[in-house]
Amino acid sequence: MYTTSTGLAAWLRERPLVSDALLAALLTLAALPIALGIDVAPADGFPPPTPLSVALVVIGCAATALRRLRPFTALCVSEAAFGVLSITGYSQSLAGFAVLIMIYTVAAHRGLAIGVLALAVDQLVYLTVIVTTGGTGIVLVDVFASLVTLTVWMVGRSVRLRRAYLAELRDRAERLERAREADTRAARAEERSRIARELHDVVAHHVSVMTVQAAAARRILTSNPEGAKEALAAIEEMGRTAMAEMRNIVGVLRTDDHAAPAERGPQPGLHELPALVEQMREAGLTTQLWIEGEPRPLPPGIDLAAYRLVQEGLTNTLRHAGPSARAWVTIRHEPGEFSVCVEDDGPGPGNGAKTGGTGHGLVGIRERVALYGGILKIGPRPGGGFEVRARFPLKDGR
């Protein structure tokens, strides 16, 4: 039963003309006995009803069928019917109640200007009736009638303001939801960009080292089988390391709730630079590491950015600087600043591959450094070779 009534109420709310027509029909049916004099006592002092008086009662009550479609027009019709009935002395039946319904409707569904105009029309009709008929002779009755009308009008205005307030809340909630979705999409795009940079750094570094080791193994395969075996073992170990790092990075993209959780490990940082330098030495690149100043903990983002910068710089040196090149990595801790520099003395391949600056690796390094307010310099060294240098500002001495 509850579901049926709820469905009927919702159906009527979606069809206001139907519900208003039902209200008008019920109001008219309730007013007819009084209009026809059936429920009117002779002591009430009303003259016998006429077809005109009955028609006016019906018109005044039936006008409520248009209360939400044309509320001000319906109010004027009800006011006219009520005024004529009052001036001619016939029973108003429920026409006065219909006027109150229309006063409430105009105040609840139209703006303030129309609402004030409706209230003025009602008071004007009431004053006209009082002046024409001499009123009831009791001032308190007239004041009470005006107060009832004003109260109904204020209730309608309150309903309208509350409806507007709720609509604003819903609109604000929708805007916040759209903003949240936009922020989520932006965060996902940023996360995809970060993962792409991480994947590029991992793949470019390890594949470059593996390529160099494979080339060395091929050259010495017949003349130095033991050396070739060591190079192949290094390739195997490098491949496993690369797969482990890629699994950790790509693991955040897994969306299967029933799948096993992805392995988690700390992001690489400066504490892994000795191992990185040793990898490059094993790949055939003479590499040295200097740490200047007193080492102190860095923000995780800067720590990762510095490590990736060194990794990208050494990888580019291994690719392009030539077989006889040497590389230097300098880490400098200073008050309020941290800097990292990767230099080499290689002549390069002679085609400007190192200085183009358009590869994904260098673009990723620029983004990382800029993200933390750092300054990046990439280009040839004054004495020959190539350098990648970055300075990061540190807050509160960190």
UniProtKB/TrEMBL annotation:
Native species: Thermostaphylospora chromogena
GO molecular function: ATP binding; phosphorelay sensor kinase activity; protein dimerization activity
Chain segments annotated as transmembrane: 81-104, 124-153
The keyword Membrane is assigned to this record: yes
BP GO terms, sorted: Mo-molybdopterin cofactor biosynthetic process
The EC number(s) this enzyme carries: 2.7.13.3
Residues in Histidine kinase/HSP90-like ATPase domain copies: 301-396
Keywords for this protein: ATP-binding, Kinase, Membrane, Nucleotide-binding, Phosphoprotein, Transferase, Transmembrane, Transmembrane helix, Two-component regulatory system
UniProt-recorded name of the protein: histidine kinase
Highest rank taxon of the organism: Bacteria
Known catalytic reactions: ATP + protein L-histidine = ADP + protein N-phospho-L-histidine
GO cellular component entries: membrane
InterPro entries, per the entry: DUF7134, HATPase_C_sf, HATPase_dom, MoCF_biosynth_CS, Sensor_HK_TwoCompSys, Sig_transdc_His_kin_sub3_dim/P
